[in-house]
Amino acid sequence: MAEIVRLNAPGGVEQLDLSRAELPPPTADEVRLRQTAIGVNFIDIYQRAGLYPLPPAAILGVEAVGVVAALGADVTGLAVGDRVAYAGAPVGAYASERNLPAWRALKLPDEVLDEEAASAFLKGITAYMLLRRIYPVERGTTVLVHAAAGGLGQLLTRWARRLEATVIGVVGSGPKADIARAAGAQRVIVGRDADLAKEVASLTDGRGVDVAYDGIGGRTLQKTLACVRPFGVVASIGQAGGPIPPLDVEELGPRRSLILARPSVMAYMNDADEYRRAAEAVITALSTGDLQGRGRAYPLSEVAQAHSDLEAGRTSGAIYLTP
Asked: Of 61, 112, 124, 247, whose CB is crowded by the most CB atoms within 10 A?
């Protein structure tokens, strides 16, 4: 019997129900995983709340690390006992065991710990998408990273610094500023009520940044638009601070001449080639120590507390569940 977390109905953390279920045998193109560490992400909160609707009684979760326990008849390239990581659809990671399409599972080298991969796999793929696909960051690029002390924010900062970019981080408090600087941010703006445009203009000699990553949403997105140079890119990647108000296209141009991206990492990972390319880059970066991803652990039975802490901003860095 597998221990699972079902979503009874869209809503708050009280809708998360810990129970047990018997799993069917894996189909021909699936593997059975005994999971060891399960990533927790803002997309899980959006799905729990109903922003991204799920089928009734769905099991949340889009990434985890585990050990292959059984193989479908047509599966090749994997063996029972292999340690693997995965991310993407179908949802269902909040479980001690699960069946998974075999093409999603990538082997992990010994030097990458389970908790490191569970903390960084999806966030690393997201960072790769943003830094490589949405805007090609390179030496000399100046980037703005909101929530720079968070799990994704730290990974974005570290990876952008590897690419020799200049990183301006935005955080909510002094202690989080220290975390952002430790991740590599050369400049840090503290406080959600700060005059972002003025601060960024001062730090960039009035030019603005080349690309900004905004996972805060709410009213912050309009502030972010004012921080980017003409023909620069704003990537809106979430709304942890609340729904984004309707945006007038005149806010983008022609005066500002901005490019607004609203990328979905889930859609990105549905392309098998893109998924594997990004995932292998993340695993390599974890193996070499270029990315560091170990987060805070919660037992699977405390999933409601994990969601509450993440949603309320009481965490810094990544968090994960242990069955």
From this structure: 124
Over residues 136-191, the pLDDT tens digits come to: 999 999 999 999 999 999 999 999 999 999 999 999 999 999 999 999 999 999 98
Is residue 224 within 8 A of residue 251, CB to CB? The reply is: no
- Asked if residue 313 is part of any domain, the answer here is yes
Could you report the per-residue pLDDT of 179-188, keeping only the tens digit for each? 999 999 999 9
In a domain, 241, yes or no: yes
Domain that holds residue 100: 2-113+294-322
Residues in contact with 124: Cβ distance below 8 Å, sequence separation at least 6, in sequence order: 155, 159, 278, 281, 282, 285, 286, 291, 293
CATH code, domain carrying 9: 3.90.180.10
pLDDT on residue 313: 85
In degrees, rounded to 5, the angle at the alpha carbon of residue 134 between the alpha carbons of residues 253 and 261 is 40
Total-model pTM: 0.94
Q: Which residue has the higher pLDDT, 292 or 202?
A: 202
Q: In whole angstroms, how large is the CA radius of gyration of the chain? A: 20
- Could you tell me if residue 288 is inside a domain? no
Q: Are residues 180 and 235 in the same domain?
A: yes
CA distance 222 to 182: 28
